[in-house]
Design a protein that fits this description.
The protein is of the alpha/beta class. Helix content is 36%, strand content 23%. It folds into two domains: 112 residues, Urease, subunit C, domain 1, CATH 2.30.40.10; 306 residues, TIM Barrel. Bound molecules: guanine and fe (iii) ion (FE). Guanine binds next to α1.
Length: 426
């Protein structure tokens, strides 16, 4: 185990949404995988540590992708001319059936894990498919990537083609148990299971009930989808009439926060009651702007959620989302908030760059504990970015260079080092 080191360069992080802290030629200290803070110069007590000098490069916390679908990366950037329910039937479900094939899963998940590793993401919350074995393959690959991730075997026992519908709640829950037990046996260091009902239309009450029991028994986190699309929301109202609102259909089965870490993707159409329940239960929102544009779901009122103090991060939602880039998620988030302000609610100020960066780092990182900031006690997740290939006619401030790096997606080819829990993986 490495004991410690110092990274020197242009340090940028957001300890608070409105606070982009920049330390030009500053340092961040890592001890046993934990960040000991960002400083102008190496404090005396750390003078014995090795200094890795990154020169004029930018150093930022690793980004957390709070919602993405590994099997869907295979069709990323295609099949966008649908809305959610048709898109699932025409595009997403046919691809996911392929993961019954172990060789295909190995190949496709290998590409996904490699691409995720190459970007600025250091932590991710990931959907697999309903196939337990393929999802374990995905977890093996994620573990090897060095990233920290939570991965779910998807549960779905209704409203999908027969080959992608689990034969009853009993079988689905048994497979989920087998999946969780297998994860334990494999002794992963940075990869864990997360209970994953796909969404209410995919899960019978019988299955939801069993998943609630599994969650309690194993004390696991939960991920799902919530209030994403108008037709979906109307369908849920029809098939779950006993639920007071969409999120209540999870809460009735102990799958909506309270005693567990729970993240719900989208929340574009959450009612005031639903938002209040999320606040009361401490549910995280995974805001997925790229997906919400591509499959025409709408725009989540992120400024309102921030004002209310909802826990929130950003998700790529590949492949409703068309990019695994969390840099892109940050700029998409800002851009859709501007359209929301312009066209929907003139009192909902657009998000600023520091605010969106906060969501992508410390906001989403909080789902994993203390991650996404260079404050003392946070996990040492860091990305070193070389932006020197970008032409510069005049000097830019470090803050300007950082913002430009995001808008110009320099996470594609500008990353020169990446650390997760203090371990260098690039
Ligand atoms: N709702 C249920 N499944 C999915 C999915 O795969 N992608 C998105 N965007 N929404 C969903
Ligand atoms: Fe999704």
């Amino acid at each position: 185990m490495n004991t410690g080191f110092v990274l020197k360069g242009n340090i940028c992080h957001t300890p608070a949404p409105d606070d982009l802290e920049v330390l030009e030629r500053g340092v961040v200290v890592c001890e046993n995988g934990v960040c000991r803070g960002a400083f102008d110069a190496v404090p005396e007590r750390y003078a014995h540590l090795e200094v890795i000098d990154c020169g004029d490069r930018l150093i930022l916390p690793g980004l957390a992708d709070l919602h993405t679908h590994a099997p869907q990366y295979a069709f990323c950037g295609t099949g966008m001319d649908y809305e959610l329910m048709d898109w699932l039937l025409q595009i997403a479900f046919p691809e996911e059936t392929r993961y019954a094939d172990a060789a295909y899963a190995e190949k496709a998940y290998g590409i996904f894990a490699q691409k995720l590793k190459e970007g600025a993401t250091t932590r991710a919350v990931i959907f697999g498919t309903m196939h337990a074995d393929a999802t374990l393959t995905l977890m093996d690959l994620m573990e090897r990537s060095g990233l920290v991730s939570l991965v779910g075997k998807v549960n779905m026992d209704r409203n999908a083609p027969p080959e992608l519908t689990e034969p009853g709640a009993e079988q689905a829950a048994a497979d989920t148990r087998r999946f969780i037990e297998a994860c334990r046996k494999r002794g992963y260091q940075r990869t864990g299971p997360i209970v994953t009902p796909r969404f209410v239309p995919s899960c019978t009450d019988a299955l939801m009930e069993k998943l609630g029991a599994i969650r309690r028994e194993y004390d696991l986190p939960v991920q799902s989808h919530l209030s994403e699309n108008p037709d979906e929301v109307a369908f849920v109202r029809e098939i779950a009439p006993e639920a007071a609102f969409y999120g209540d259909a999870y809460d009735r089965f102990g799958l909506f926060g309270r005693d567990s870490r729970t993240v719900m993707a989208h929340c574009v159409y959450s009612t005031p009651e639903e938002v209040q329940r999320m606040l009361d239960n401490g549910v995280w929102v995974a805001h997925c702007p790229s997906s919400n544009m591509n499959i025409a779901s709408g725009i989540a009122p992120v400024r309102r959620y921030m004002e209310k103090g909802l826990r929130m991060g950003l998700g790529t939602d590949v492949s409703g989302g068309s990019s695994l880039s969390m840099f892109r998620a940050v700029t998409d988030c800002i851009q859709v908030s501007k359209m929301y302000w312009r066209y929907v609610d003139r009192d909902a100020r657009p998000l600023t760059f520091p605010e969106a960066l906060y969501l992508a780092t410390k906001g989403g990182g909080s789902f994993f504990g203390s991650a996404g900031s260079f404050e003392d006690g946070f996990a040492f997740d860091a990305v070193v970015l070389d932006d020197s290939a970008e032409p510069r006619a005049r000097a830019l401030t470090v803050a300007e260079r950082l913002e430009r790096a995001f808008y110009r997606e320099l996470d594609r080819n500008g990353i020169t080092m990446k650390f997760v829990r203090g371990e260098r993986i690039i």
